């Protein structure tokens, strides 16, 4: 199939282990991918986006069950539980807090860096 990627390519692109992608498929976070005649999984760009979403959501601390609920709602296969909107708002607040902290750190590092003569590094 043209325009598809095999699991190793997807894993490298997203910085994941192929076992992680197979696990996401096994627990139902990913639909079963099409396969080549030789049995190799074939992923579309939409699949890659979904895998990346799951990976990023996990990295931000969302549980697999919460991610499953979000994906069901996103896929229009059901209504979210009453907890999902609250959990999403809490996650957005955490992200905003992290962004603010990173901006502050960036500012402080630039301030410290500006004290050094340009082009000269100290040991």
Q: Which key phrases capture this entry?
A:
single chain, 123 residues, mainly alpha, Multidrug-efflux Transporter Regulator, Chain: A, Domain 2, 2 domains, two-stranded antiparallel sheet
Biggest sheet strand order reads 1-2
What's the helix-strand series? Answer: HHEEHHH
| CATH arch. level architecture of the largest domain | Orthogonal Bundle
The main β sheet shows up as: 2 strands, antiparallel
Task: Provide the CATH top-level class of the largest domain.
Answer: Mainly Alpha
Shape: flat
Number of helices: 5
Q: Give the total of beta strands.
A: 2
Strand fraction band?
under 5%
The total number of structural domains is 2
Q: Give me the secondary-structure category.
A: mainly alpha
What is the distance, rounded to the nearest whole angstrom, between the alpha carbons of the first and last residues? 54 Å
Poorly predicted regions are: none
Helix content: 55-70%
The CATH topology of the largest domain is given as Multidrug-efflux Transporter Regulator, Chain: A, Domain 2
Radius of gyration (CA) equals: 20 Å
User: Mean pLDDT, nearest integer?
Assistant: 88
Topology:
Blueprint: H1 7-14, H2 18-26, E1 34-35, E2 41-42, H3 45-59, H4 64-74, H5 83-113
Antiparallel strand pairs: 1-2
What this model shows, in words?
With 123 residues, this protein is mostly helical. It has two domains: 1-78, Multidrug-efflux Transporter Regulator, Chain: A, Domain 2 (Orthogonal Bundle); 82-118. The protein contains five helices and two strands. A two-stranded antiparallel ribbon has the order 1-2. The longest helix is centred in the C-terminal third of the chain and has 31 residues, at 83-113. It is flat and about 60 Å long. The mean pLDDT is 88.
């Amino acid at each position: 199939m043209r325009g598809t990627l095999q699991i190793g390519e997807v894993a490298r692109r997203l910085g994941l282990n192929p076992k992680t992608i197979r696990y996401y498929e096994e627990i139902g976070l990913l639909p079963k991918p099409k396969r080549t005649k030789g049995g190799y999984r074939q992923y579309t760009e939409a699949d890659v986006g979904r895998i990346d979403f799951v990976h990023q959501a996990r990295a931000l601390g969302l549980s697999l069950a919460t991610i499953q609920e979000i994906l069901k709602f996103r896929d229009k296969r059901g209504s979210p539980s009453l907890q999902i909107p609250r959990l999403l708002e809490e996650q957005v607040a955490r992200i905003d807090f992290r962004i603010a902290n990173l901006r502050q750190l960036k500012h402080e590092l630039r301030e410290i860096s500006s004290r050094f003569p340009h082009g000269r590094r100290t040991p």
